Amino acid sequence: MNAKTSALDRTLVVINPASARASRAWTRIRSRLTETGVYFDVQKTSWPGDAEGLVRAALNEGYRTIAVIGGDGTLSEAVRGFFEKPTPSFDSNDSIPHRIGLTASLAILPAGTGDDFARGLTGKRAPLETWLDKLIAHCRQPGNDEKTTRLVDTIYATVDNGKHRFVCINAVTLGISAEVATRVRTESKVLHVLPGEARFAIASLPALVKWRNHSVRLTVDENSTICSTNLIVVANGPFVGGGMHVMPGALPYDGRLDVITANGLSRAQVLREFARIHRGGHLANPKVQVLSGTSARIETIEPAKPLPIEADGDFRGHTPAAFRIMANSLRIVW
Q: What is the pLDDT confidence band of residue 133, given thresholds at 50, 70 and 90?
């Protein structure tokens, strides 16, 4: 750190060096930040999940701007670092994790294959330079957060019947969608050069072979229903799976969760809906149901057959699970 500047005056850039896309993006980002006179420090992650701890430590040191280079997984890790570790009880009034660095902002520098959360904010996949310009403008106007930032919502989740808790920012998927998202995350490097939609489609094929509907109790706010499904999405943003327009009406700043289920679909019908989901055409199917609220709980009627859960690209556990929107809980550079 430059002795003439404190953490308060500098931006911390967090990057995952294991990501080739992020490393290539960093070369351009570093050059622009240097040219425009932005003071910055760099932290490179060393293992999966490391960004959470790096961000939390940086906020406690006084950094007011954290910039994250990477995809939705790295972004989600950084978001968790803006909050204290979740408390043991989800249902009590004090269960929502407290924010760290209330005046700090998170800058998104998308460099993943999908970048679904960033895409959801702009309505399309904006180039890296667009987000970099936002960061530079923010750094050049210290103390003018009203013009250079905006508040967005995050999701607080408990899975495995409350045993594990976490914060995420874009979406949680359950059932086949979770299996596919996890497969996309861990697939061979050969497929990593493909667009997010193509990778999602390829990863879907093995999961479709094992397609089985489950009897699920879904509760959104106080309204409970039982449905036969193997595909549920709890969304804060509209895009999932590398550009799939799963929840066109979702807004990451409206203070609500959007929950979508596909009820009683056959394997062939699921395959057809995957082909239509890119542009949101799946919502025309009467078997596709969309609900909205501030909280949701999902559990299988047969406890011995739980649904797998992933959030922002990472496997997180199984049902029973509960989700709660944390409105206006994160400030991002805009």
A: very high
Q: Mind listing the pLDDT tens digit for each residue in 18-29?
A: 888 999 999 999
DSSP code at position 321: E
Half-sphere exposure for 20 (CA within 13 Å, toward CB): 5
Residue span(s) of the chain under CATH 3.40.50.10330 come to 7-154
Q: How many CA atoms lie within 13 A of 104 on its CB side?
A: 29
Lowest mean pLDDT among 87-101, 140-154, 168-182, 295-309: 87-101
Question: Could you tell me if 293 and 259 are in contact, meaning their C-beta atoms sit under 8 angstroms apart?
Answer: yes
> CATH classification of 7-154, choosing from 3.40.50.10330, 3.20.20.140, 3.40.50.2300, 3.40.50.1000?
3.40.50.10330
Domain 164-327 has CATH 2.40.30.10: no
Contact 69, 14 (CB under 8 A): yes
* 227/305 Cα distance (integer angstroms): 15
Note the pTM of the prediction, 2 decimals.
Answer: 0.89
Sign of CA dihedral 104, 110, 115, 120: positive
**Contacts with 332 (C-beta within 8 Å, 6 or more apart), sequence order:** 105, 106, 107, 108, 121, 149, 150, 151, 152
